[in-house]
Structure of PaaI family thioesterase:
Amino acid sequence: MQPESGAQAHFRALESLYAEAPINRFFESSLEIPESGFARIHFAIDERHYHAGGAAHGTSYFKMLDDAAFYAANSLVTDRFLLTTAFNLLLTRPLKAGPVIAEGRWISGKRRVFVADARLIDADGEEAARGTGTFMRSRIPLADLPGYRMT
């Protein structure tokens, strides 16, 4: 099998970067970037993520929405790591234990600031939350980050 090149290699390197991030030791999740400007995260909510009321705490919503939108935007940038500068959330349904999908889509921006949105889809196929974020190029080269491996 030949190594991937171009955009596909960048997408695989971002997926690797996601898998290597220390924060993801707390979340059973995997990232896929099937195309430029789109990212999907599969993850599972379990009772460890619950607040006192018996449903997923907002940190789970934020993390997955932010990550999906972030990677959708960073799929367009091959040289620098993006940083979240703002993120707005709308939580519409409580998440219980089970599989959840976060889908992120790039909306606008291609130079310095990027806008992307994301939504969470629960095990019943219902939207549980959505969010919109702005992301800015950092000074951090992707190539310098542990986990970002172009193969």
User: Anything to note?
Assistant: The chain has two helices and six strands. The helical segments are 6-20, 58-74.
